Every structure is written in C-alpha cells, then in structure tokens.
Amino acid sequence: MTSRFSPLVLCALISVPFLAFGQTGGAKLQVEGAWARRAAMMTGGAGGGGSGNGAVYALLINAGKAPDALVGVASDASATAEIHETYRDMDMMMMRPVRKIAIPAGKKVAMKPGGYHIMLLNLKRDLKTGETIGVTLQFEKAGKIPVTATVK
Amino acid sequence: MVRGIAALLLAAFAAGASGADRGSLKAGVFDPPRAAPEFSLRGTDGADFKLSRYRGKVVALGFGYTFCPDVCPTTLAELAQARKKLGADAKDFQVIYVTVDPERDSTARLKTYLSAFDDSFLGATGTPEQLADVRKAYGISIAKKTVEGHPSAYLVHHSSFVYFIDRGGRLRAMLPFGGRSVEDIAHDIRALLKSERKP
Predict the structure, then answer these.
(1) CB A4 to CB B178 under 8 A?
(2) Which residues are CB-contacts of B52 (< 8 A; sequence separation ≥ 6)?
(3) In chain A, what residues touch B11 (CB-CB under 8 Å)?
(4) How far is the C-alpha of B36 from the C-alpha of B177, rounded, in Å?
(5) C-alpha to C-alpha distance for A70 and B180, rounded to whole angstroms
(6) pTM for this prediction
(7) Contacts from A43-46 at CB under 8 Å and sequence distance 24+?
(8) How many whole angstroms separate alpha carbon A17 and alpha carbon A34?
(9) What Å distances lie between residue A95 and A18, A98, A115, B72, B117, CA to CA?
(10) Separation between Cα atoms, residue B189 and residue B195, nearest integer Å
(11) Alpha-carbon distance B40 to B162, whole Å?
C-alpha cells in the first residue's frame, strides 16, 4: 500500500519549482506536485480539441486560518476541464462531477487516482511522459492559482 | 444476475485468499483455478480476436473505455509499468482490454488510446450483444450515466478489477482497482509466468 503513495512523495520532493501559492483573500493556499496522466488526444472532438480525456492530480494545502474551496479548473491542454470524483460502489468505480472541493483551514486534500481529479475534456494534444501542461485552479477565496503539471 | 456472478466470483476469490495458494500470489486467487471463458470479438490488431489464441502467455484481462479519464488510465499505466519490470519475459505477457462502450470505441480509437500506455496492449470490441455476453461470463457490471451539464456525453461506470489468466488459459487471480502496487503486480505476473511453461 505504501508504494502506491511513493509517486506522490516523489512529486512533493521535486515540485519545488512548481509550488504555487494563492496570495489573495487572506487564505494561504498551496498546490503541490501537480501531475497529469499520459493520454492520447484522439480525433473528432468538440471545441477545437480531440475527443480524448485526461486527468490531473495534485495536493491541495490550506496553510491559512480560514476554510477555502476549489471551485473551478482550466488547462491549456484541453478545451474544457472539470472537477471530478471517482468513488467505489460495490466492485464498480463510479465517477461524478463535483461543484467544489472544500479544504478546511490547516488541512490538505489530495487529488489522486481513484479519488478527486481534474478531468480534462477534449484534449488539444497528446499528453506524453515528461512533457508539461499548464493548469489553473480557481479557489473560492485564494482566487486563481496557475501551476505546471508534469505528464507521467 | 450479473451482480450475482460478480458476487460469486468475489466470494471464490475471498475463499481462495485463505486457501493453499496463498502466499504465491499477491492478488486474490481462484482456488481451484477455473477455465477463463472463451470469447470471440474484433481486435485492435485488425483480426478476429479469440482469447484462446493467447494460450501460452500470461494474460491480464481488463474492461474499460477510452473516454474514461481516471480509473482506466490508472489501471493501464500500472500494467504498463509492471510489464516494463518483466524485462525479456514481457513477450510472454499480454494485456487485453475489452471495451464497455462499443458505440464510441472503434478498434482504431481503442488502439490509439492503448498505445499511449504500451504499444503491445491489445483492445477488443464487438456488438453490444457480444460484449454483454463476455461481461456476463466474467461477472462485469456496467451502468451508463449521462453527465450533468453535458447532455450528449455519458460515462460508463464499470467493474474495475483485472483478471490474470495463466499460460494454460485458466483464471488464476483477480486484481481489484488500486489494491496492489506495481511491484506486486509484476511479482504476480512473474509467478504465473513460472508456474507452467506450456498449456
């Protein structure tokens, strides 16, 4: 089980240049270790993109004294992006869009495989290992935080 | 009905986990192993696809679809990483991915999707009836759901475990989503590769 988390730990170690802080609204929000899963763009999608989907994961840290929430997402790699959640029902893994992810004061919320993720809809290009994409996370109080996600 | 079979399989795998085979495999084991149900579909290699053609190899059999952004890519990426750890033995390991979304997944689309993970992975599709039969035989449940705010888009929720089939075409283990590390998956594949040289 521990080894499932090792990529995340590794991410945290190498993500210093990508560490992003929210400056506005009094909340100190950090987005750490953003990474995207490799994916094919596919053809024939809407909005000038392909029809392939992708996913971005990151650790959301609220170092402030007030609660905040992730309320919107966008990426330069896809026509649209949404906040989604995968959850388990019996042996089935289900997925649903979520309006927001609450991040209580002083807490961390992990977006990780099989849980919360940023779903990239209609990819504009293939996401290949080692490349990077731009992702902007919109928080209720901290505002917009742009990060760079490495494709793995 | 399908749920019933899945429950039965899960029960078999839970029982197996406490059986004599315990220890040799990290995933839930079938004890005793049973023949993997044969199926005939269309493959991403452009040919008719028969599971029995892969006798002699260890097969990882999964179900999913190309619009799936989280669970399916995670599973496929783990299988790709595990395959890389096999070295020269990788030639005797075959990942087979059967779509649960034949309306949108053509063989060409499946091939492009799978090649993002590993060029050796094979996909298979067929008529909705053929695929329903395969799912029934393997206890795979699906549920088609539209997405809020996207009336034309839909998701296909599906059972997310992966079956491991030995060289003799027998179901040997069942891997739940997120249940094992890449090292454990590679360990199980190696164990199955060694367990019997020929069918």
Answers:
(1) yes
(2) B38, B169
(3) none
(4) 20
(5) 30
(6) 0.83
(7) A45/A79, A45/A122, A45/A123, A46/A79, A46/A122
(8) 11
(9) 28, 10, 9, 12, 22
(10) 10
(11) 19
Reported as a pLDDT band with limits 50, 70 and 90, residue A22 is: low
Angle formed at CA B179 by CA B32 and CA B105, multiple of 5 degrees: 90
Q: Are A30 and A54 within 8 A, CB to CB?
A: no
Q: Do B116 and A38 touch (CB under 8 A)?
A: yes
Mapping DSSP onto H, E and C, the string for B15-65 reads: HHHCCCCECCECCEEEEEEEECCCCEEEECCCCEEEHHHHCCCEEEEEEEC
Q: Which of A38, A88, A91 sits opposite B10 (nearest CB)?
A: A91
Please answer yes or no on whether A91 and B155 come within 8 Å at the CB atom: no
Establish if A16 touches chain B: CB-CB under 8 angstroms: no
Strand A54-62 and strand A132-139: the pairing is: unpaired
Question: What local confidence, expressed as pLDDT, does residue B69 receive?
Answer: 84
Name B48's bridge partners: B42
- Range from A12-16, A108-112, B154-158 carrying the lowest mean pLDDT: A12-16
